[in-house]
Amino acid sequence: MLLLVWTLLNAVSGLKADDGGMVEELVTEKEAEESHRQDSVNLLTFISLLTLTILTIWLFKHRRVRFLHETGLAMIYGLLVGVILRYGIPATSYHNKTPPSCSLKEGPSSTLLLNVSGKFFEYTLKGEISFREIHNVEQNDMLRKVTFDPEVFFNILLPPIIFHAGYSLKKRHFFRNLGSIITYAFLGTAVSCFVIGNLMYGVVKLMRAVGQLTEKFYYTDCLFFGAIISATDPVTVLAIFNELHADGDLYALLFGESVMNDAVAIVLSSSIMAYQPAGANTHMFDASAFFKSVGIFLGIFSGSFVMGAATGVVTALISCSFTKLHCFPLLETALFFLMSWSTFLLAEACGFTGVVAVLFCGITQAHYTCNNLSEESTKRTKQLFEVLHFLAENFIFSYMGLALFTFQKHIFSPIFIIGAFVAIFIGRALNIYPLSFLLNLGRRDKIRGNFQHMMMFAGLRGAMAFALAIRDTATSARQMMFTTTLLIVFFTVWVFGGGTTPMLSWLHISKTKQESAWLFRLWYTFDHNYLKPILTHSGPPLTSTLPSYCGPLASCLTSPRAYEQLRDPDTDLIHNDADLTFTFGDTAITANGASTSRADATGGLGWSTNGKRSGSTSEEALERELDSREQELLSRGTRLVFPMEDHI
Amino acid sequence: MLLLVWTLLNAVSGLKADDGGMVEELVTEKEAEESHRQDSVNLLTFISLLTLTILTIWLFKHRRVRFLHETGLAMIYGLLVGVILRYGIPATSYHNKTPPSCSLKEGPSSTLLLNVSGKFFEYTLKGEISFREIHNVEQNDMLRKVTFDPEVFFNILLPPIIFHAGYSLKKRHFFRNLGSIITYAFLGTAVSCFVIGNLMYGVVKLMRAVGQLTEKFYYTDCLFFGAIISATDPVTVLAIFNELHADGDLYALLFGESVMNDAVAIVLSSSIMAYQPAGANTHMFDASAFFKSVGIFLGIFSGSFVMGAATGVVTALISCSFTKLHCFPLLETALFFLMSWSTFLLAEACGFTGVVAVLFCGITQAHYTCNNLSEESTKRTKQLFEVLHFLAENFIFSYMGLALFTFQKHIFSPIFIIGAFVAIFIGRALNIYPLSFLLNLGRRDKIRGNFQHMMMFAGLRGAMAFALAIRDTATSARQMMFTTTLLIVFFTVWVFGGGTTPMLSWLHISKTKQESAWLFRLWYTFDHNYLKPILTHSGPPLTSTLPSYCGPLASCLTSPRAYEQLRDPDTDLIHNDADLTFTFGDTAITANGASTSRADATGGLGWSTNGKRSGSTSEEALERELDSREQELLSRGTRLVFPMEDHI
């Protein structure tokens, strides 16, 4: 492995030496070429890291090593390369000159023209840099070059990760625990954010008292830190859950919480950034500014939600109306990919949060569009996003490892770091235990003590916290936060991630039987009777679920294939190439719908009858449906690669 | 469709209106945000275009419309959006000010610091712009924004297209016609380049004579134009060939030529750029500069070739030694993807041409690595690159349509355009007919007249010509070339692409029987006996093909699975889930190898015996192998989406 890294480094130094000869070329062309080569080398470094990670993961999987997840491994490799880049390469720069500087009276604009003896050159703004860094530019060009634009994380790496999370949500357990997940994600993250923010504000005051802090560090900065560090990412824990087939409900709680709180944290942090009180002293409480922030939070969140869900629905409608698209899986897959990506862009273009929109788009796609896709395309899209997610996640984690040594603006403040570790522990505790207590008051199957301890333990921080922290490292407060976030991610992924297996056996967590929640039942009835028939070819025809006076509209909206299913309820089973025999929940419900529609024809009281009937039978039917859906996934012959995505 | 475009435009204008309110924010932040939104809207425009293209293609495929290929369609949609952007939006800019400018005495560097009252801002060089454009910046900001960095084409869009072309080369017909393909690609492209270059130089002289040209236009510029326009891309023709199951050899000749001449053209054009005679008058012939260019051509081409093939071989070795990687198709796919990408980056980092390296990497991967991948991964990688290729190709073609109206520096010169159309016709004719005549002297199965006419007709220009032309549009000569290239692509794709079906029936082209070429036989024997056993698990063990004194080395290099195959030659057949029965060429050869190795043990004259035996039986065996390989592809149950990729 070191050999590979060494080769890379040689390539880098080779480039430096290579460049001396071509003096006749223009400086600009030469520098552009050099910068392009440098970019190639940087990317190559990461790709080699990922390759190494993959080969080592394979070794680990082969030997059933569970204490270190691939993300942890990626971080270790990143760290090693970071150390080599930092200490292995002489600090001299091949640049060898301070960049030229010019002065203007007006504020900076995005474009600047440079006039060199009549020729004009166009420059684009990269950002503000402090006076201290100007010399760093000179000295550590190599280290600086390995740094990516933070927006790369938000626009390229996070979307596939988050989309995949939404797309692979296991609906059964997710919707069963929807209320609890939303409580943990919204209320829990808010609690965690405010607890951590206030505790850190105490820490900051302490630091100022002992003379460890001289620069500005406002209350809003502390709250911002609370927001970014509240996004949990128990990827390691969940992978082990899957391998050990641990409890499905606990999995859903943890996975659902982590997926949703990523969305909450990202919107929360931008709302806090938008919190700008009228006075100069920005750590005072200002009611109007506070409500403005709350309004921004609600606006961005609901806007992103609506946008994501809407694109998902549009895709479902397109794939539903272009039925013969089935015959061209490549077109279907491409369409699916483009529509999912356009959600992100549409949200960003409208000023909402693309990542959040993509999450809800993923959930909607998995729920509706997937039913309309051909079997081939379902597999293709799943695999496509699986690969993208895998590459993006491991890239981020190896970049984290690299950043610890190569990032130029680290501020290691022991008091702040210790304070942060204590604060996230307290924040997590005040999130999980009180909310679990409250939730248990309303839940039929309580969240038991060992589950609560496991959730407490699984508060790992990961890609989202890192991406939020690196987004803005302009002030020293933000730099301190970034360093601390990095250390927290390292510690939690390695220590808590590695300790999952012993913890699970210590807490005696295994599979348990579950019941459905009322929120789920309510949603299921609405979804099954109205949304599915419109957006997909499955489910009962609308003519049987809508009141009789809506007859013409209903028959217009119902897909002809829904009737086909009524006529021949066994067709679906014929398509299955596995030997498993099971009844399709949908078919059962369809039969039920058919009998109701017959009652409808005789009595005209279809709606209320149907409403009650589906209410009374829904519980069994939906259990069957969800069961069969999951078995179906298994029976389709997809090899289970990372059990996390395919089956709980 | 227009509705969608309209929505987009509204979104754009909405953004403009939206922005006025937030005056308290910093100009930089606001501009960065604005630019981010703008980027999102631009990408969204293209994604909507692609979505529309996909839906229309589906309609066309569904109704078996063959006269317009998806790429032609993408161009039409691009054109429409271009017209709307150009004429539908008022030309006022929301920027409303000329960018500030500052003066320096020294030449431009890649980084510039701006000092605004003590605060330093960092700017990166975008490129030189002429004085005329500074005002364009002001006026047509919207149109300008929709323009991508040309390097995007080379670094993001072309690699998957070219890799896929290499990866999906049908080995049977490709290697059978290897000699002819190389002749057309190297000699033919060189002939075409020089013919077109010289003719265009005449046209340029004519233009100067009639006063149509006042700016500089050197002989090297003409040659450069010859190089970029010599890259053929008969994607439309080949798609129809597939659908109609036209002659396999003709397909191989056309596809092979187009794939290889892309590589030749890209290297040729950069060699011509490097041609800088010592004197000031750069259109004089300078022997040393000429030979330097030839040297550069050979250096870059062979370097890229070696690099691509080497990475392919390394991947094959990795996938061969990590045999249990089979159980984790995700890891395998990710590894395959990363290794292929690293070829590109490695070549770029070393100063070679990434696109060319990727082509040869694709060919090597298809030949060796594919044998080591699990069935699941073979399908996955195929589908992954299929989707990437599809998206990238259609993106480029819709961008071409868009560029006709939105590109700011078009120079429409009627004489030049007419001259270019005549020149590419003559260039193509002087490439195909004389070379076919020469090739027919040596070929057993001649390239018949109707094939030659079809090849002449199939000289479509596409993505590569466009990408090479847009790479540098600094001088007016280059701008004229770019405009002309665009028009040539439009014309050839629509007219020649649309006329393929009538042309095929007019020329009476159907399937014919073929024989193997000597070059192919030579290569096959070496490859089958030595390379395949080392790099894959198939083929005879090295112990039977290497001379006996190499015994220890041979048994060390031979994979244990090769012996397993010997013991149980039917295992491969069991894995097949289709009902087709056929014999595996490999198995037959293995049995042959086994008997030879027995002879080896008794006589010790293994090498010469084996050499002769495999020589005498190779023809039948390789026919069988290639046949079964293709049948296998069919029998694996992959639905044939675009027949082009899967089967001739």
UniProtKB/TrEMBL annotation, chains A, B:
Residues 1-17 form the signal peptide. Residues 53-506 form the Cation/H+ exchanger transmembrane domain. Keywords: Antiport, Cell membrane, Endosome, Ion transport, Membrane, Signal, Sodium, Sodium transport, Transmembrane, Transmembrane helix, Transport. It is found in: Cell membrane; Recycling endosome membrane. It comes from the Eukaryota. The chain crosses the membrane at residues 41-60, 72-89, 181-203, 223-241, 294-318, 338-363, 384-405, 411-430, 451-470, 482-507. GO terms for biological process: regulation of intracellular pH; sodium ion import across plasma membrane. Residues 607-619 have a biased composition (Polar residues). Belongs to the monovalent cation:proton antiporter 1 (CPA1) transporter (TC 2.A.36) family. This is Sodium/hydrogen exchanger. It comes from Poecilia latipinna (sailfin molly).
